[in-house]
Design brief:
The chain contains 20 helices and 51 strands. The chain has an eight-stranded parallel beta barrel with strand order 1-2-3-10-11-12-13-14, surrounded by four helices. It has a six-stranded antiparallel β-sheet with strand order 16-30-31-37-33-34, covered by helices on one side. About 55% of the residues are buried. The protein is α/β, with parallel strands linked by helices.
Amino acid sequence: MKKALATWVVAALTLVLGRSGCAPPGNTPLPRTSAAAGALARGFAAPPDSARPWVYWMWMDGNLSREGITADLEAMKRAGIGGVIAMEVNVGVPRGTVEFMGPEWRKLFQHAVSEAERLGLEITLNAGPGWTGSGGPWVKPELSMQHLVASAVPISGPGRFDGVLPRPARRPGFFGDGLLPPDLEKIKNDYYRDVCVLAFPTPPAAGAIPDIEEKALYVRAPYSSQPGVRPFLPSPGDYPPAAAGSAVDPTRVVDLTSRLAPDGRLAWDVPKGDWTILRFGCTSTGATTRPAPVPGLGMECDKLDKAALDAHFDSFIGELLRELGPRPAVSAAAPAGGWTMLHIDSWEMGAQNWTAAFPEEFRRRRGYDLLPYLPAMTGRVVGSNEISERFLWDLRQTANELVIENHAERLKELGRRNGFGLSIEPYDMTPCADLSLGAVADVPMGEFWLYGFNTFHSVIEAVSIAHTGGRKVVAAESFTSADTEKWQAHPGSMKALGDWALAAGINRIVFHRYQHQPWLDREPGLTMGPYGVHWERTQTWWDMAPAYHAYLSRCQFMLRRGLPVADILYLSAEGAPHVFRAPASATRGTPPDRLGYNFDGCAPETLLARVSVEEGRLVLPDGLSYRVLVLPERETMTPALLRRIKELVAAGATVIGPRPRKSPSLAGCPGCDAEVKTLADEMWGDCDGERVKEHKFGRGRIICERRTAAAAPVQPDKSVCDVWAPPLSDPEQYGGFAIAEAALARLGVQPDFESNPHLRYAHRKDGAADIYFVVNPEDRAVSADCVFRVTGKRPELWDAVTGEMRSLPEYDQSSGRTSVPLRFEPRQSFFVVFRGPAPGAPSSGRNFPEIGDAGKITGPWEVTFDPNRGGPEKAAFADLEDWTLRPEEGIKYYSGAAVYRGSFDLPKAAGRRSTHVAPEGNSAGIRSGAEKPDGEEPARWWLDLGVVKNMARVSLNGRDLGVVWCAPWRVEITGAVKPQGNQLEIKVANLWPNRLIGDEQLPPDCEYGKEGNLLRWPDWFLKGEPRPSPGRLAFSTWKHFDKDSPLLPSGLLGPVTLKMQLAGL
């Protein structure tokens, strides 16, 4: 296959980087650095295993095998995965034969742990079957999640009442009713325990507390990402008065509990007047493990009771620990691997408002007896609207504390005793304040979807928890999707959203999901119903995935170094439930990007325990600091929190926010309100937000301005993700971002990062080094002058795709900041690292040396396909073209990898013009129409692949040059290319849909439901017999396509071109 080169093309080097790809490495070497800076560079070049991305490893209701477990884990290790979150679920597939927690299942789990230890992979195990929480068939109803329920009997006196009070009815479960096996369903529904009996004079007028179902924690909306879900409950300074005569008088509530007989009979001499008797009891909320394997179905354990968690832990985690025996010690010879952590996934269990010890815990924490106020839990007004609301605030706060202490912290404690850490997703239906619950975790987690829910707020929450809690690792359930993914996701399509998460502060991507494949010969195989990206060894491009995972590992290594840099600390409002929503005006777009001043959210408990003031900065114990504290737009605050804020301001802090007027709690009332007013008057002085907007107090200051207009909801960027972006009921929980921005400017704090056009960024400080992660969010090439809040240091460009590091000689430093011109390909990202002193004299050279086209490699090409995937062994392509346009069905419907082969010569003598010589036979040539300047040889060469569907591996002259998976779609060939006889191989992998659609042209041999789920395992499959429809090559447990579904463009579409950079340019 003799190749020829037509002519050189320099074209005056007018075809420059802005069109041709990412910045080529410059020729400016990096200077010597300190030992710490050298460690940073070494870690970037070869990240430790601890920096690798993880996966959710789903086991699907008994569809398990020993050989599949080994194959899965070995494939993960080869691909650069560092660990898994393992859970067994049941989503849309027929059951398998391995019973959850049965003898065979335990042996397989033990095998998984042993294999993970051998391979150095970490396993995090979910706290229970399914993903909702902690429960199972071993949970007895008295240890399940509880609701307080009540029945009412109106009576009149004087007279004797002697009768059976109706047993309060159980409330229907939000999730869970009808899911349990019949025997457990009956046990759950029959469970009831009396709590108390109260009587009170019936108010002459009707009164009702609005939204009592939510305020009394009977219902918590399912997903905080859904439209209409309130991120928090209001806590105003004043409530509208109740209708005259409609309130229950708490001082006249009579406790009749001691008179109640076991059969529900009550005997009581009723005083004169109309009375109401309330019989209170507790029932199971109905929350069940979901979506658990059938043998793992059961009730969720009581989240307010340590004893309930202890019993669950012993029945599940304890059983597995007893089976496994002592765990091996971690050493250099035996790296960290095996079972290392426990996990609480997104809540999704609904609310709980009762446990046996609740009255005692309430009194201990709130300082008063809750019995006189219990009628408020039925929606009756007690005392007044304000008194009722403040009692309900206390009820929710008590439940919040009990969940955190008796469930999350208890699980962490039990895990620690056995050497486990704990990760938590603290959102979705939780009755808690998200930031407070997540603060328990060793590894806080958020979640973002590629298709489906808008959960970007949870990422900001998790990052805030990690930053303010001193956690180095913050993870995210990543690229979750509904039934719209359809095997179409791949690294290149996911980079933009993944880079958003990294820029937001995530430093452990956990792909949702890697579905365990029990078979070695079925592809694409088992699915998690229609959900999640298909991130498993049966993917067409899996052997190319290490390149993407290496990129993530470099990014995650860098984004764990040192400390994050942020200027604004937003105090989360007190009370529960509460979702921290960053101010809409502090971000732009969907997904939300930070503006020039970064921020974190802070739980009230964190402010009380971990924040101090040094030189006007709000400082955390690990050294992370902020310039201003922004209070929520609330008129209420507890005295304890306000006292702490007073201490911080007196010590020099700048605090922005409205003057609180009252406490939200009934505890200590009315003295608590008087203390709040006294403290607020002292701190805010004459500041009214209009005439006077700032008040100095101690060494600090209070800034109070009238709230600005709320920012409008922003629709999602569908080129990055396809999610629901619900408008919030209150997009601004805080005063407008402009208020904080102006305050920072008055303090002399310049924006940390600015660019035009807009770029995403994150900033960390690692000793003397400043690390910026800068991302082009647009699907086009951009050039931007980027301004960094760093001076006196030399900028360097570190490319996490290639691992290359080089100096940036072009920059300008003034007014405490450094301006650096940067160029980005579509969706491209770089690290800009400032380390080492800036040279005194200006540097020569360009940040992005110009490169130009040196010719197009033309066909024909020899292309080999995998016959086992239905392709022809060899095919000749005269020119590059989309596989789906070929006449051969084996290529048209092909899914998998194919190898393109060709060869070429480099140009001959300098300055010689020639015309293209058409190669003979099966060969490729190079076309161009310009010439190389005499006397200059190219300093560097690249091979640009043009359009690739969807990933490619390039080999030249037997040398593997790596995988191309994102823009710029090219590899450097300088060290591999030779003057003549270059042998080129390009292995290209497309996606699964085309083969699945091709199979639909043939008669079916599996039965699917209307939604696409496999209804039952086919007989031929179970018996290991040949398929009745022999032309079908793929097997999947979910059907996404029919015969008329559109095919996806596939293959190497090109054009394939040579590019060059001349020496000295």
